[in-house]
Amino acid sequence: VQLVESGGGLVQPGGSLRLSCATSGFTFSSYHMSWYRQPPGKERDLVAVITTAGVGINYADSVKGRFTISRDNAKNTVYLQMNSLKPEDTAVYYCNAQAEWGTRRYWGQGTQVTVSS
Fold first, then answer.
1. Rounded alpha-carbon distances, angstroms, from residue 13 to 24, 37, 57, 83
2. Among residues 6, 11, 36, 45, which is most buried (max CB within 10 A)?
């Protein structure tokens, strides 16, 4: 099983980034996909989640209206479009896969996002 995040980096406040999480080794379409983030010295928190068919989507209040989660089941990839970035969005962003049925759960290795002028 592999979940590989990409697209992180350094961006100025107000800028945008698009994170990708390419997966393999499991049946992607049977897993709910999420993005979490962990700021320095803080706990890992849920940012956004999308259900298996992409019908159900939820966001943390802090990113509503700025971030968009999406998935491409043909490419086994989940995305996070991040707009109007703020310094407080600085964190390591992790991709997570949660089985629709059962308790299997997988994590990516994380990608750093730094919002700074």
1. 33, 18, 26, 10
2. 36
Q: 81 and 71 in contact (C-beta within 8 Å)?
A: no
User: What are φ and ψ of residue 101, in 5° steps?
Assistant: -125, 125
Q: Which two tokens stand for residue 18?
A: 């698009």
Instruction: Output the CA–CA distances (angstroms, integers) from residue 23 to 5, 64, 111, in the order listed.
Output: 9, 25, 15
Model confidence at 5: pLDDT above 90: yes
The Cβ of residue 31 has, within 10 Å, a number of other Cβ atoms equal to: 24
Q: How far apart are CA 31 and CA 12, in angstroms?
A: 33
Reduced to 3 states (helix: H, G, I; strand: E, B; else coil), residue 83 is coil
Q: What's the longest Cα–Cα distance across the chain?
A: 44
Task: Give dist(CA 72, CA 112) in Å, integer.
Answer: 23
Residue 116 CA to residue 56 CA, distance in Å, equals: 32
Dump pLDDT digits (tens) for 78-117.
Answer: 999 999 999 999 999 999 999 999 899 999 999 999 999 9
